[in-house]
Specification:
The chain is of the alpha/beta class. It folds into three domains: 1-54 and 68-103, no CATH class; 110-165 and 361-379, no CATH class; 179-358, P-loop containing nucleotide triphosphate hydrolases (Rossmann fold, 3-Layer(aba) Sandwich). The chain has twelve helices and twelve strands. 37% of the residues are buried.
């Protein structure tokens, strides 16, 4: 197994160079933004693997003044000759590659060349490289099922995404159903605003008796903001100082069709308090827990948030700040990895017009680049 690192202005350019040098079997192990010390070599660092070493090519003589290369390939030295930092980096790359190969029954060459282009675009949009490998293989197996169309590659990728991105069921399925929903997530993610939008959309607009309960006693400003929202909407409001008080309030609100619970944005050092609230949640029948995350966050931050707030067993995701980015790869990768369905998207401060439930086709539309032939499609 041979590994080679390329520095380039784009993942797509690195892929073209790698396949020229390593052959069509070259497979992306991972890609990332270049470290500051290597940024002059190219904006992206992309590592490729191939089963067979490529034939050595004679060094090219410079034909004129030296110009910065569009893509720069760097051989990864063998571990026993590397410095300690490079040994650690190579070990991590090999572990990633082992994970890819162990999950893959088909070689990378089974995907048509068209999928290589869309895979590169997805990785540049922030999608996890291993996940993109899986998606392109899924799509390649679906091309015969999507039928002839203007863009069969796009249609096959859309089908692959719809198999992995699950939309959540409706918040209110019938008029007689009582709904208790809690909103959890990191501080600053927009939980309080999302809750107010839910109250307006599923309470006031739907003519359902609603009530807001704040279990967030850590932020006085958030509690007062919710109190103001409740007053404007003309619905009830209460503060639960403790998990026990929350249980008592919920018992008193049995006649309300919709009860919405706000929670603190627990930091890693406050997880003992989160544990107490999660035990209270476990005793609430049919509780719906919405994990609120920002679409602008990095993949690593989203993964840590999902791990931290997994204590509440969320069954829906709400992605906020959709209007502040055009790259949804990190958020959608995290959603697919977690298996938690996405229920709503929030874009802007409007209550409730900037909150909308999503379908699987909405999510695939966020994930994929424009169809070939569209105004923004690449040639």
């Amino acid at each position: 197994m041979k590994l080679k690192t390329y520095y380039s202005g784009s993942v797509e350019a690195a892929m073209e160079l790698a396949r020229e040098e390593l052959g069509p079997e070259a497979m992306i192990v991972y890609s990332r933004k270049s470290d500051p010390g290597n940024r002059q070599l190219g904006e992206y660092e992309v590592v490729f693997a191939t089963d067979e070493p490529s034939a050595a090519a004679p060094p090219a003589e410079p034909a004129g003044p030296a110009m910065p290369p569009a893509s720069l390939a760097v051989e990864i030295p063998a571990p026993w000759t590397s410095m300690s930092a490079e040994i650690g980096d190579l070990r991590r790359q090999l572990e990633r590659l082992t994970g890819i190969v162990s999950r893959t029954a088909m070689p990378a060459t089974t995907a048509p060349p068209e999928f290589a282009r869309i895979a590169a675009l997805l990785i540049e949009e922030g999608f996890d490289a291993e996940l993109v490998q899986d998606l392109t293989r899924d799509a390649a197996s679906l091309t015969s099922l999507v039928g002839a169309g203007a863009d069969p590659v796009h249609a096959a990728m859309e089908a692959a995404f719809t198999r992995r991105l699950r939309p959540a069921p409706p918040v209110i399925e019938n008029d007689d159903q009582r709904k208790v929903a809690a909103f959890v997530g990191p501080a600053g993610g927009g939980k309080t605003s999302v809750l107010a939008k839910f109250a307006a959309a599923y309470g006031l607009a739907a003519r359902r008796p609603a009530f807001i309960v704040s279990a967030d006693t850590l932020r006085v400003a958030a509690t007062e903001q919710l109190r103001t929202y409740a007053s404007i909407l003309g619905i009830g409001f209460a503060v639960a100082e403790t998990p026990r008080a929350l249980s008592q309030i919920l018992e008193e609100l049995r006649g309300k069709s919709l009860v919405l619970i706000d929670t603190p944005g627990y930091s890693p050092s406050e997880m003992d308090e989160a544990e107490l609230l999660s035990r209270c949640f476990a005793c609430i029948p049919n509780l719906e827990v919405h994990l609120v995350l920002t679409a602008t966050s990095k993949t690593s931050d989203l993964t840590r948030a999902m791990d931290r707030f997994g204590i509440f067993t969320p069954n829906q995701l709400v992605l906020t700040r959709i209007d502040e980015t055009t790259s949804y790869g990190s958020a959608l990768s995290a959603a697919m990895r977690s298996g938690i369905p996405v229920g709503h998207l929030s874009a802007g401060p409007g209550v409730p017009e900037d909150l909308r439930p999503v379908t699987v086709f909405d999510l695939a539309g966020l994930a994929l680049p424009p169809k070939a032939g569209g105004a923004a499609a690449a040639a």
